[in-house]
Hints:
This protein is an alpha+beta fold. 28% of the residues lie in helices and 33% in strands. Helix 1 (52-65) crosses helix 3 (85-94).
Amino acid sequence: MRTKCILSGSKAPDSCLSPMLSSRRDVYVLTTMRIEVLKMDCQVRLATTEDADAISCIVIAALRESNAQDYSPDVIAQVEQSFSPMKVQLLLTQRAVYVALVGQCIVATASLDGDVVRSVFVLPKHQGTGVGRQLMAVIQSIAVDAGLDVLHVPSSITAEGFYAALGFRAIRDQFHGAERTIIMQKRL
């Protein structure tokens, strides 16, 4: 199955955006302004404090490039404040945070807080490659192993279709000021 990863100019630091074209396990076909990814395998592990900078970069890049299509600049700026490297380090002490790696590069993150999946972000150039689906499959497996029978996710407008494709269904909208969040759930 072929999926597309659109190249775009990111405002995230270069350390977060190192090119993955050197990975031997992935096959790329360069076309006009696009890289088509034929297969994208990733490995998922618990995040460590050393990952805080990379997680912050991924979140901010996704907010600025993907979520900015659905939210105002003020909402994006407000959410960004919750994901500085220092605030990410604090999150690491409060819930189970996971990262997905392609090769040695962290390209996605998600966390599990009880029965709630939070802060799912994929580096924009890796969106649509299956990394997010693989990360969510690991989160779901961990939830099942923990005896959970349902997962909830506070979805952005941007990610609602992604979660719906994974079997989550919208149960209500929630507003934090101007920020609309769709509360979704999935029975395991």
